[in-house]
Amino acid sequence: MQTLGPQQKESAAWIFQTWAAFLLAISMTTVGIINLPVDNWVKGFMSMGMAFSIGSSFSLAKTMRDLHESKKLTARIDEAKVERLLAQHDTLTK
User: Fold this and answer.
1) Which of 28, 72, 89, 91 is the 20 to 30 A CA-CA neighbour of 21?
2) Rounded to an integer, what distance in angstroms lies between the CA atom of residue 48 and that of residue 8?
3) For 37-72, what is each residue's pLDDT tens digit?
4) Are 36 and 42 in contact (CB under 8 A)?
5) Could you tell me if residue 4 is inside a domain?
6) How much is the pTM?
7) Is residue 1 part of a domain?
8) What pLDDT digit, counting tens, does each position of 5-39 carry?
9) What are the backbone dihedrals phi and psi of residue 84, each rounded to the nearest 5 degrees, phi first?
10) Does residue 7 lie in a domain region?
């Protein structure tokens, strides 16, 4: 399988930092919800809201990544088509 262009690679430190920040945010929000001075049904409602927010954040991030990657691929294909047309109609080399 041939790759198109340079591949972006994240460092191990960046991956660790993103996971650590995510887990810290989820943990602190969970502790905050647990320690709220309200009834359990309110805590349940807040927990459901947090769960749906996390899920929709992952879906949004994946959708934006896929959209960005498809635009990059489309731009490369269009660029290759233009280069091929220019190479076919290059009058200086003929």
Assistant:
1) 72
2) 35
3) 999 999 999 999 999 999 999 999 999 988 888 878
4) yes
5) no
6) 0.63
7) no
8) 556 688 999 899 999 999 999 999 999 999 999 99
9) -65, -45
10) no
Is residue 6 included in any domain, yes or no?
Answer: no
Residue 31, domain extent? 12-93
Three-class secondary structure assignment of the chain: CCCCCCCCCCCHHHHHHHHHHHHHHHHHHHHHHHCCCCCHHHHHHHHHHHHHHHHHHHHHHHHHHHHHHHHHHHHHHHHHHHHHHHHHCCCCCC
Q: Cα–Cα–Cα angle for 45, 48, 51, nearest 5°? A: 155
Q: Which letter, b or e, does each residue of 52-63 get, where b requires 16 or more Cβ atoms within 10 Å of its Cβ?
A: eeeeeeeeeeee
Comparing CA positions, the residue from 14, 34, 12, 33 lying closest to residue 22 is 14
User: What one-letter code names the amino acid at 53?
Assistant: S
